[in-house]
Amino acid sequence: MSVSAIVMLIVAVVIVWGGLVGAVVQLRRHPELPEDDAAPTRPAA
Amino acid sequence: MSSPSREQWGSRSGFLFAAIGSAVGLGNIWRFPAVAYENGGGAFLLPYLVALLTAGIPLLVLEYSIGHKFRKSPPAAFRRLSRPTEALGWWQAAICFVIAAYYAVIIAWAVRYIGYSFGEQWGKDANGFFFGNFLQAAEKPGLMSSYVDGVLWPLIAVWVVVLVILALGIRNGIEKANKFFIPLLVVFFAILVVRALTLDGAARGLDGLFRPDWSALGNGSVWVAAYGQIFFSLSIGFGIMITYASYLRKRSDLTGSAMVAGFANSGFEILAGIGVFATLGFMAAAQGVGVDEVVSSGIGLAFVAFPTVISQMPMGTLFGVLFFTSLVLAGLTSLISIVEVVIAAVQDRTGLGRLPATLGVGGAIALVSIAVFPTDSGIYVLDAADHFINQYGIALAALIVLIAVGWLLRRLPVFQKHANETSAIPLGRWWLICLGIVTPLVLGWMMIDSLRAEFAENYEGYPTQFLLWAGWGVAAAALLVAVLLSLLPWRSADSETALEAGTDTGPAARDAQDAREKEKN
């Protein structure tokens, strides 16, 4: 494999799979709010 | 009748698995690798990521918001958005009807090929075996004249499995099936990729896929290809995500869910690209040719190139079983979501229960599928219907939805606010720009490109008369049926009256009422 292909393979994996891990971590940090219509909605961060 | 409480996902992960299962389909495995290869290799990553962030994920959020806000399938959700747009929802349901009918057949082929993998029964001529012995395809496209038992039986089995899962409902059927199938798919495909990477020539294949051709970035068609790949691979534009999001809990994080589903879909595509090109590298090395001579996509890649290469490798049977089982799993989870759109649309319209709706609607799709596709002309009808319903069904409907919601009704800010109420990542002005300007422009360009190609020469060189009914006719019929269905008066006048009066106590009615009040203000 050429160096440029190896670099792009690594970049693709890091960005896309890293993006997935980041998105999952971000979602897990914000558990679903209780299913109570009276509960206040989360303010936009 | 007042709307009964709507079924909900059992958990957030259940919804995510279902959404990912829907997005990850055959296109991830057999379309992405070739598209990336032909459009700049490693350099394609840039337009691909731009497309994911400016069209894919924003569209996912919009569809989640429409489904979540109105808690309805596409026809009823669009009707609540604005009465005339109901036809758009029926259009999406009709598109799903068509796609489900042929998509099931490809899964049936893959089921049969799991069996053929034992002993590599396709022999030395995988092409002749697939089209001749297995499909018994006619020489030329035309009307169906004979049945093919070898396709019929696995197809019936696929439909039985899909309808049983759908009849069990959202939580017990779709959610449980996806929570089982998706991890299994990832494990199977990961083993396959590891095996592919250990083959001689794998590095040559990966070099072909990832070596960047930066000059490709100056070519507009490469950017359109990137948006097209994101668009067709994410299961957006035909109402699936609206339907799935309608079963979400009230306070679900829509934007966060879209980020996870979008990146998971792309993550699987990258994995598939690595697996497919490592295998093609082995094939090129074995045949003593360049990688460029063995690259293929779609049906040719799965049912001709892969069987050929499986016959050439040690432990080919195991590789074949892993590959075709992965195709079946990826396809099944997508097919379930496609059929669910039609079932939910009819349920919302008629108030039918889950079982009768599944048997009636799913059964009708299965009957069409079984009547048309396991025949000598099945592959030609499938190919033409797939091309035309994709271009002049899914993509055209998505363009018109964006124009209607973004420009005619000017409701994008309503959905932006709705998503922001329960999501941790706020949608800013960029979201409005992506959906109001960037995506419609790219979809419009795709449409013009595609129409130009259509009139320059017949798709695949098929006879005009055949394309008129199997291609243009199918796409036009989906639109016509949608318009007719939207013109029919709603039989359940009670719920309509309740909705109009704002007396329906369901969350969707309240939201709809809120929207109307805001509109008046």
UniProtKB/TrEMBL annotation, chain A:
Q: Which residues cross the membrane?
A: 6-25
InterPro entries from the xrefs?
MaAIMP_sms
**Taxonomic superkingdom:** Bacteria
- One Pfam match: MaAIMP_sms
| Keywords, in A-Z order | Membrane, Transmembrane, Transmembrane helix
* Protein name (database record): Methionine/alanine importer small subunit
- Per the UniProt record, the source organism is Streptomyces thermogriseus
Automatic annotation (TrEMBL), chain B:
Q: Coiled coil where?
A: none
Keyword Transmembrane: yes or no? yes
User: How does the UniProt record describe the way this protein sits in the membrane?
Assistant: Multi-pass membrane protein
**Protein location:** Membrane
Pfam families of this UniProt entry?
SNF
Q: Matching Gene3D superfamilies, A to Z?
A: Hydantoin permease
InterPro entries, from UniProt? Na/ntran_symport (IPR000175), SNS_sf (IPR037272)
Give the stretches traversing the membrane.
Answer: 12-32, 44-66, 87-111, 151-168, 180-202, 222-247, 268-286, 321-346, 358-382, 388-409, 430-448, 468-488
Q: What is this protein called?
A: Sodium-dependent transporter
Species name: Streptomyces thermogriseus
